[in-house]
Amino acid sequence: MKTSDFYYDLPQELIAQDPLADRSSSRLLVMEQSGGKTEHTVFSDIGRYLLPGDCLVLNDTRVIPARLLGVKEDTNAAAEVFLLRRRGDNVWETLVKPGKKLRTGARVVFGNGELRCEITDCLSDGNRLVRFEFDGIFEEILDRLGQMPLPPYITHKLDDPGRYQTVYARYEGSAAAPTAGLHFTDNLLNELKDRGVRLCFVTLHVGLGTFRPVKAEDISDHHMHSEWYSISDDAAMMINDAKRNKNRVICVGTTSCRCIESAASSDGKVSAGCGETDIFIYPGYSFKVLDGLITNFHLPESTLLMLVSALAGRENIMAAYAEAIEKRYRFFSFGDAMFILPKGQQITCLK
Q1: Which of 8, 82, 91, 144 is the most buried (most CB within 10 A)?
Q2: Chain centroid offset of residue 235 CA
Q3: What rounded mean pLDDT belongs to the chain?
Q4: Confidence band (pLDDT; 50, 70, 90) for 351?
């Protein structure tokens, strides 16, 4: 398939710039996986599409304030260092601006000098390894000096950085939020538990590679950057129990999906553990664990749009996106949501 097969035209004004006051008041497009029939409701009603025994898989990663603004030590020129992942003691893989001025040996100062770094290596993909120098606790300094790394299509200032975190965010390490989870409130999660839905938490630290444009004309030529994930013994047991008992496994977000599919054997058994995954899911992929998916609306020609198309079919997804645009849904990170129902579930069956 061609990358252009996943293009759609989105009016600029439909890109959500701010989170809603109430997380769960987002709109929700519900779609049957087979056939593509749709229904429109609000996210707080999602419980009526779930069954007792359903295993809801959520990514409990926490976004770090990864954007550091400073100056070059020798020239005082503005410089930006964006943290991608920790690579060792005080060593991080980063993106830097301006790239041409920040080569190996360059030094950058942040704040009043309480944090400094030196670029130690230029990697083949253009990323930089940097070694930080500081007195104290790095995470505390980062909280003071770093900024929340909002996507470039969000131009408004975020007054409350906590709104770019899920309410269940726990383990720090992401450069971007697992945005499908932003719609859940503590009350809604408790309501789902009272209905008999089982909540299962896994961790995948979201990297910017997930959001990089697909430059290959043939999507099978695209290579995903790797991301770190972890699945506990309890989480693996919960997922495997659900499958064994013929209950449904429903992922909240593409990151949760990629996490459990990466850890699954060919017979669908999920193994506990941690590691790196560069799994690329696109049409033709056979899901080993996932039954249904709660997700946001994704960028044109993105790997995430290809993933949801693998689950529900490209034509169904593109038709649903066209319908969402016609009905003025809000798109991307702070936008509305979509629930691709498990195969065989009809929209009317749980009303």
Answers
A1: 82
A2: 19
A3: 95
A4: very low
Q: What is the predicted pLDDT for the residue at 152?
A: 87
Helix/strand/coil (H, E, C) string of 178-233? CHHHHHCCHHHHHHHHHCCCEEEEEEECCCHHHHCCCCCCEHHHCCCCCEEEEECH
143-163 residue pLDDT tens: 999 999 999 899 999 999 999
| pLDDT classification of 138: cutoffs 50, 70, 90 | very high
- Residue type present at position 341: L
Flag whether pLDDT at 339 surpasses 60.
yes
Name the least confident of 52-66, 88-102, 252-266, 285-299. Answer: 88-102
Per the CB < 8 A criterion, the answer to whether 278 and 224 are in contact is yes
| Top-level class of domain 67-145 | mainly beta
CA–CA separation, 80 vs 47, rounded Å?
A: 43
* Partners of residue 215 on adjacent β-strands: none
36, two tokens: 């593509």
Domain boundaries defined on the chain:
3-63+160-350, 67-145
Homologous superfamily in CATH for domain 3-63+160-350 = QueA-like (3.40.1780.10)
Burial of 67 from C-beta contacts in 10 A (0-12 / 13-18 / 19+): middle
CB 206 within 8 A of CB 253: no
Q: What is the b/e burial string over 301-338, where b = at least 16 CB atoms within 10 angstroms of the residue's CB?
A: bbbbbbbbbbbbbbebbbebbeebbeeebbbbbbbbbb
- Tell me what the mean pLDDT of segment 125-136 comes to: 94
Longest dimension (CA), the chain: 67
Q: Of 18, 23, 333, 26, which Cα lies nearest the Cα of 206?
A: 333
Q: Is beta strand 128-134 parallel, antiparallel or unpaired with respect to 27-31?
A: unpaired
Cα separation, 197 vs 191, in Å, equals: 9
Site of tokens 């309410």: 167
Instruction: In whole angstroms, give the CA distance from residue 307 to residue 310.
Output: 5
Give me 1's structure tokens.
């398939």
